[in-house]
Write a structure and sequence with these properties.
The protein is mainly β. It has 4 domains: 155 residues, no CATH class; 108 residues, Sandwich (Immunoglobulin-like), CATH 2.60.40; 108 residues, Immunoglobulin-like (Sandwich), CATH 2.60.40.1510; 109 residues, Immunoglobulins (Immunoglobulin-like, Sandwich), CATH 2.60.40. Helices cover 12% and strands 41% of the residues. The strands form 6 sheets. It has a 6-stranded mixed β-sheet, with helices on one face.
């Protein structure tokens, strides 16, 4: 179907050539919609090369948007007007925005006597025409601008790339574009904010390479409506960019945090962009300004069971949502896991997305409450004395619950009659290596004792050999009726293999329980390679 007939069928009103040219160089300045400068800033957030300087048009000097506009000019994305002006404050129309977006993407659109027609055809041919646009001469709204950019830079629409495009071909996706060596994860503390709110971005950089990565450069590009607050790892802040240099050991993950504040220039309905890049991996996140998002009638509380755990234990968190309003609520709930937590399960169709658990459209009746449950496993890499933290957010409200890691938590080794000690043949050990654990049982009584002993293996271990007629049952080794003479000791041995999937720096543990005397002991072995 001819492009014009197709667009007409979609209800798009097309101007004549004279109308389009007149509008492109208007005498008056429209007063509504996204400005030309703002749209260029939004677009250049998808482009890596932002070296454009300042003073590139007679009306673009050193304003906050000047680097983006000048970078766009240097790359041929914008040309300005014949009189040397750019008119940064004028509202941008759809046909102007389409041209800017497709040039930035590097799309091959050809040429036509009607200058804008190739751009419209390129959008319609790839089903990338924003559904919310009804007149291509009208000033664009923020929503329409965001829809246009999302469509143009989404990989599914397959526009041809050139030097304008970012290295990451899927750069507009919140899932990011991860290469084989560096994997990025970005979690925002909220998806909806108000002016003045502080947003925390947690960025995790995982090294999947077979070598350590030293001085890896990580870049975060922030929207002009963000004010820098603070960052971890000595991040260097310079205008709209924060740079880090970090070392990431092979098969390890480094975490960076960045705090930003929504500036007073932001308006309700605006979408603030945030982009992170490391090596060839890139992720984008978008926040919406919503003055109504902070609902004081919703209360969040969290409880944990148990409140003190050992590495490898499972913790159940109960999340209570209380609606103090006289109206029903439907809310989205987000739970952010600590680095030492591993997702197990969630009620109410909660979905795991990296280290964030998402519940959507949860119903909480008027003056009523709703309960969600979340189960997590404490990582074997957690150390004695650590505190793991679960943070839950919804409707601008949040609560945090901390759980202490205590390797002696489940131990009742307070019986003087029987003492247990465990030693490992090597610590640290490599994955795939055989480790022998020596379990020594000391009888401090004046009578012979017969005891049952159970050794429980960490999931990162596999049984290799066991001594003294012990029985195997899954990850448990059981010795029945071991005789320990009075005031003497007895030694049993157990060999295990460290599993190949255990990560560098993780800790595996062997737990020994002596029945009747109710005595427990734990030995941990660090894995390094």
């Amino acid at each position: 179907m001819h492009t014009l007939r197709l667009l007409a069928a979609l209800g798009i009103l097309l101007p004549t050539l004279a109308q389009a040219q007149t509008y492109y160089y208007p005498v008056s300045t429209p007063t509504s919609g996204v400005s030309r400068a703002s749209f260029v800033q939004m677009t250049m957030g998808y482009v890596d090369n932002l070296q454009g300087g300042t003073n590139c048009f007679t009306d673009v000097k050193t304003q906050s948007y000047a680097p983006s506009v000048c970078a766009a000019k240097a790359q041929g994305i914008v040309t300005g007007d014949v009189n040397g002006t750019f008119r940064p404050d004028a509202s941008i129309t759809f046909i102007e925005a389409a041209a800017v977006a497709l040039r930035a993407k590097g799309a091959s659109v050809g040429s036509d006597v009607i200058w804008y027609r190739p751009y419209l055809k390129a959008l319609s041919d790839r089903n990338a025409f924003p559904s919310s646009v009804s007149n291509i001469l009208n000033p664009m709204s923020v929503t329409q601008a965001q829809e246009l950019l999302t469509n143009v830079f989404s990989a599914e629409h397959s526009f041809t790339n050139n030097s304008h495009t970012p290295t990451s071909t899927n750069s507009s996706s919140n899932d990011g574009n991860k290469n084989d060596d560096v994997q990025l994860t970005v979690i925002a503390s909220s998806s909806s904010v108000d002016v003045g709110d502080t947003v925390t971005y947690t960025m995790k950089v995982r090294n999947n390479d077979n070598r350590d990565l030293n001085n890896l450069k990580v870049y975060a590009f922030i929207d002009s409506d963000f004010d820098f607050v603070s960052t971890s790892d000595d991040g260097n802040y310079d205008k709209d960019r924060i740079d880090w240099e970090i070392d990431v050991d092979k098969d390890e993950t480094e975490t960076i945090t960045l705090k930003l504040r929504v500036s007073g220039s932001a308006e309700e309905g605006d979408k603030l962009s945030f982009r992170v890049k490391a090596d060839d991996s890139e992720i984008r996140k978008t926040l919406t300004i919503d003055e109504e998002h902070n609902n004081d009638d919703l209360k969040i509380s969290i409880s944990d069971s148990p409140s003190s755990v050992e590495p490898g234990d499972t913790v159940t968190y109960t999340i209570r949502l209380e609606n103090e309003d006289d109206n029903d609520l439907r809310v989205d709930v987000r739970a952010l896991l600590d680095d030492d937590m591993e997702f197990v399960s969630a009620s109410d169709d909660g979905d795991e997305n990296d280290d964030e658990i998402e519940w959507d459209n949860i119903f909480v009746g008027e003056n009523d409450d709703e309960t969600l449950t979340l189960k997590v496993r404490i990582s074997n890499s957690a150390n004695d004395g650590d505190t793991v933290r679960l943070e839950v957010r919804s409707e601008g409200q949040e609560d945090t619950e901390t759980t202490k890691v205590d390797e002696d938590n489940m131990s009742s080794n307070n019986n003087d009659d029987i003492a247990v000690s465990i030693s490992d043949s090597q610590d640290p050990a490599e994955r795939g290596e055989i480790v022998m654990y020596t379990i020594r049982l000391k009888n401090n009584t004046n009578n012979d004792q017969e005891v049952d002993v159970v050794a429980t293996l960490d999931p990162g271990m596999t049984i290799y050999t066991n001594s003294d007629g012990s029985e195997r049952n899954g990850r448990e080794i059981r010795w029945r009726d071991l005789l320990i003479q009075d005031d003497d000791d007895r030694v049993v041995n157990l060999k295990v293999r460290i599993n190949s999937y255990v990560h560098n720096g993780d800790t595996v543990r062997l737990k020994v329980h002596v029945g009747t005397f109710n005595v427990d002991e734990v030995e941990t072995t660090r894995v390094e390679y």
